[in-house]
Design a protein that fits this description.
The structure holds two protein chains of two kinds. Helix content of chain A is 26%, strand content 20%. Chain A is of the alpha/beta class. The chains are: A alpha/beta, B mainly alpha. Chains A and B meet through helix 8, strand 15, strand 16, helix 9 and helix 12 of A and helix 1 of B.
């Protein structure tokens, strides 16, 4: 049933992972202010439980889930709520956020809140509740609430848990460090998932450019669990959920469907390690591993940062900007978003901060499309970016839908290969945003 | 902490190294050996023809092309490619006119780079073929001093060239078609025959094509498909009657087959974007070439075959679009339709 280790198409961008691959994670001093946007995940924003002037402890729940597809938010440091107001959001907008003034005198010692010990006799429902109460979302970038993925309809048969350790975005080493430093946590998290979903088989997909992670993960697999460590081809976007499933199982997630519809649940390894943390320490998701890298920052590092730390403090902890720094990206360089405001906070789903130099962002001339077809050979979901691009430029978004615009995941492969430097994936993003504003589901 | 002026740009923030001018320049560089072979074979005439057709191609691009469009190098390629398909003894003003027509009416009128439906170099040549049918089929004799002109290159504009008796020859394809004299494959392969400026030396063109295919600047499926179809089709005919039909090797290495298959049919703008489309496109060209060469009125059919198949490219692109990831396959769609029909009936 398994054994293929590639999907078709895709690209091979330079990796730049050597900047931080061997850097052990380290903590940074607490910032003066923590900014916690209520919308940090896909789904309904959280609802504040505190008011201005309230004192909160590190780990306190300060906003509750706004629905089933939503998770609570917890204070990532002890302090006082100074305001609940709009703050810059990494997606480029401004959104409602709880601002905390961090207590400078506090030891920031958290109290265990949720479940203090992993016990084999916990029921699936208790596990899922704990995970939602822990505020867990996918930490690879998409920030989809974890408990929703773990609550398939009862008639849905699942046969595989797929752990995503690909980390195919260049520069980032967050998942890499999670696996190298906390392999036992990843395995405990997997145990919890298997128990919760009643699935007997788990596979961890890791790109071959992380041999140390593959080795450590293999050496630490618990003997009573069927966890396979599967090295995968180094190719972007290997870590895209659908591509990973295709590569490992040769199954295709149907258009508009979810992985669970073909019997698979995919979790990012860092998210799984955080699941284990909830059951180990009883602490909710209040901090995460974050790669701060790129030639535009003086000391590229892997950090453990409180959620809600502003970019400024994070860059400060890495020696600040290099002379020729030019662009700050949240996420990886292929899909990440450029930031214009250094007060923008790190969210639960932020997997990295990449600072590029003037050299990296030199503007490039755009030429007319010469129909070379390289974009068709790169598109991992077999779209025709050339047609979509010309339709997009004419703002013919309806026809773009006929050409399967909704299947596009904005991975950026087409833009990456385009010799005429036509910003294809950007055009598609604009088309999707415009359609969404008209209420079309794309 | 110092704060730089931050740039905001759309993702992806990493881009590949290829660029359109770089592709054009590489194609142009890869043509240098072909040009050198042409000059080696046909002397100063080849050089003059190439210059004339290139100037003819650059002029309209300069006059009416979008600003800076000369920089992308595509007009230069069109000019050189056209020159390579012309007989070396042709009057220069005709070559110039061909280049001019190719770019002006083959490309600019459609909206410039990337918009044209037909290969501009071949369109220029088709124009010359229609306008000057004699001049474009007057081939020089092989041999003779290298420095000598291979015909009346300097005929005045609007004047027909003077043809001196005894200085003209015939191309291998012409020899075969009209006099039924075959030419050995080795002399075709190494380019010691009469023919157009740049089409006589097969092995150099093949080598340059390999380089481009390795750089992914041409889709290798197109030439392979053309070669395979031509070879198989001619091979079958040849097996049926070896006296009447040419050998498949002769077909492959004679006339504009190599130059056309490697440099003309693979023009990115006028060839299909899907790989399956490229296979079909090449097969169509191969079939047409054999049909024209064997049963048509002309000894050579590469130009018309490619132009004809160019017209099918938008259709091929649409018909061969691959199945989108996650979408139902054609078989599944058919099955669903059948099930629906059955349901309707019951």
């Amino acid at each position: 049933m398994f054994g293929k280790d590639f999907f078709k198409h895709g690209v091979h961008p330079p990796e730049f992972k050597e900047l931080t691959a061997q850097e052990p994670t380290r903590r940074i001093p607490f910032p003066k202010e923590i900014i916690l946007p209520l919308a940090q995940h896909i789904g309904a924003p959280a609802v504040p439980l505190v008011k201005v002037g309230d004192r909160v402890e590190r780990g306190d729940k300060i906003a509750d889930a706004g629905g089933f597809v939503s998770v609570p938010i917890h204070a990532s440091a002890s302090g006082v709520v100074t305001k609940i107001a709009r703050a810059p959001h990494p997606n480029g907008s401004w959104s409602e956020a709880i601002h905390l003034e961090v207590d400078t005198w506090s030891a920031q010692e958290p109290r265990p809140r949720i479940i203090s010990n992993w016990q084999e006799n916990l029921s699936p429902k208790e596990i899922i509740d704990a995970i939602q109460q822990g505020g867990l979302v996918g930490m690879g970038g998409a920030a989809f609430p974890t408990h929703v993925k773990l609550s398939p309809p009862p008639e849905q048969k699942l046969d595989l848990i797929l752990l995503n350790g690909c980390e195919c975005e260049p520069y980032l080493t967050t998942d890499h460090r999670s696996m190298v430093e906390f392999p036992d946590r990843v395995h405990l998290g997997t145990r919890i998932l298997m128990k919760c979903l009643g699935v007997q088989k788990a596979i961890v997909g890791i790109e071959r450019n992380k041999p140390d992670a593959i080795e450590i993960m293999r050496a630490t697999v618990p003997s009573d669990l069927d966890i396979e460590i599967l090295p995968l081809e180094v190719k972007y976007p290997q870590g895209a959920e659908k591509m990973l499933i295709k590569a490992v199982t040769n199954r295709e997630v149907p258009t508009g469907g979810l992985p669970m519809h073909i019997g698979v649940v995919v979790q990012n390894v860092a998210s799984v390690a955080t699941i284990a943390e909830i059951f180990e320490t009883g602490l909710p998701l209040i901090e995460r591993i974050l790669t701060v890298t790129g030639r535009g920052v003086r000391q590229p590092r892997n950090l453990i940062v409180p959620i809600g730390t502003p970019l400024e403090d994070i860059l400060q902890a890495c020696g600040g900007f290099a002379e020729d720094a030019a662009e700050v990206i949240m996420g990886g360089p292929m899909m990440g978003i450029a930031q214009g405001n250094l007060r923008t906070p790190i969210l639960k789903g932020t997997s990295g901060v990449v600072v590029l130099t003037t050299e990296d962002v030199k503007p490039k001339d755009v030429y007319p499309c010469i129909r070379c077809g390289h974009c068709l050979d790169a598109c991992p979901v077999f779209l025709d970016p050339q047609i979509l691009g010309s339709l997009g430029l004419h703002q013919d978004y309806e026809t773009m839908m006929e050409h399967h615009l909704s299947t596009c995941m904005l991975c950026g492969c087409c833009s990456y290969v385009c010799p005429s430097r036509i910003p294809l994936s950007h055009i598609f993003g604009v088309a999707k945003a415009s359609l969404r504003s008209q209420g079309v589901r794309v | 902490m110092n704060k730089p002026r931050l740039v905001l740009s759309a993702s992806p923030h990493l881009l590949g190294a290829d660029s359109t001018p770089r592709i054009m320049m590489t194609v142009l560089l890869s043509l240098l050996p072909v040009v050198a072979a042409a000059i080696y074979t046909f002397g100063p005439s080849a050089f003059l023809i190439l210059c004339a057709s290139t100037l003819g191609a650059l002029l309209p691009e300069k006059l009416v092309g979008k600003q800076g469009s000369l920089k992308d190098g595509s007009a230069l390629i069109t000019g050189v490619l056209l020159g390579l398909t012309l007989p070396p003894g042709m009057p220069l003003w005709m070559a110039f006119l061909g280049g001019f027509f190719g770019i002006a009416f083959g490309k600019l009128i459609f909206g410039g780079l990337g918009q044209n439906a037909f290969n501009p170099a071949l369109l220029g040549r088709a124009f010359l073929q229609a306008a000057f049918p004699v001049a474009i089929t007057t081939w020089p004799k092989t041999g003779g001093p290298w420095m000598a002109l291979r015909g009346d290159n300097f005929a005045l504009p609007l004047m027909s060239p003077q043809v001196v008796d005894g200085t003209t020859g015939a191309t291998p394809l012409g020899l075969f078609k009209f006099e039924h004299v075959p030419t050995s494959t080795s002399s075709l392969f190494f380019g010691s025959t009469s023919g157009s400026v740049g089409e006589t030396c097969a092995w150099i063109i093949l080598l340059c094509g390999l380089l481009l295919a390795w750089k992914n600047y041409l889709n290798w499926r197109i030439p392979i498909s053309i070669f395979a179809t031509t070879f198989l089709f001619t091979g079958v005919l040849w097996l049926i009657d070896a006296n009447h039909y040419p050998s498949p090797w002769f077909m492959l290495f004679s006339g504009g087959m190599m130059l056309g298959a490697v440099y003309m049919a693979t023009d990115m703008v006028t060839s299909p974007t899907t790989n399956l489309g490229c296979w079909i496109f090449g097969a169509g060209i191969g079939l047409l070439v054999v049909i024209i060469r064997i049963w048509g009125g002309l000894p050579e059919g590469m130009m018309y075959s490619i132009l004809f198949m160019n017209a099918f490219v938008p259709f091929l692109n649409r018909a061969t679009r691959p199945k989108v990831f996650g979408a139902p396959s054609r078989a599944e769609l058919r099955a669903a339709k059948r099930a629906q029909k059955q349901e309707d009936q019951t």
